[in-house]
Amino acid sequence: ISLDNFTSTYSLIFTASSFLLPPSTSNKLFVAESIGVNSTTKIIARSYNGFPWEALQTDGKLADIRCNQTNCSIFTSGSYRVRELSVPLRLLNPTTQELAARLLLQAPYSALIL
Hints:
Elements lengths: L7 E3 L2 E2 L4 E3 L6 E8 L5 E8 L5 E2 L9 E3 L4 E3 L5 E7 L2 H4 L3 H11 L8
Antiparallel strand pairs: 1-9, 2-3, 3-8, 4-5, 4-9, 5-6, 7-8
C-alpha cells in the first residue's frame, strides 16, 4: 500500500478538549496524522473496515484516543488531519495460502519456555 495514494483528506472537528475522528468504512483505511513544525506529519492512529480507531506508537508515545459506542476522539493536544486510502482488491480477499503466510510472518519463531 502506498501512503502517497490517498483518496481524501478530512478536517477534524474540535470539541471542548478533543478532536472527533470520522468512522472508517468497509474496504477503507483511515490514518490520523499529527502536523508538526514545518508541516511535517506523523501517523498516530488508524482505523479500517469500520473498526474503532487504534493509536500507533510514535516517538515512544501513544496518542490518547478514546472511543464510545458511536465515535472516537483524540484527546492529545496538537494539530491533526485524517486521510483516507482505498485498500487494494488483492488485500481484501486473500487466498488460504496468503492467510497462512500472514500467520507465519506474525507468529513468534522462538520456542515457548515455561
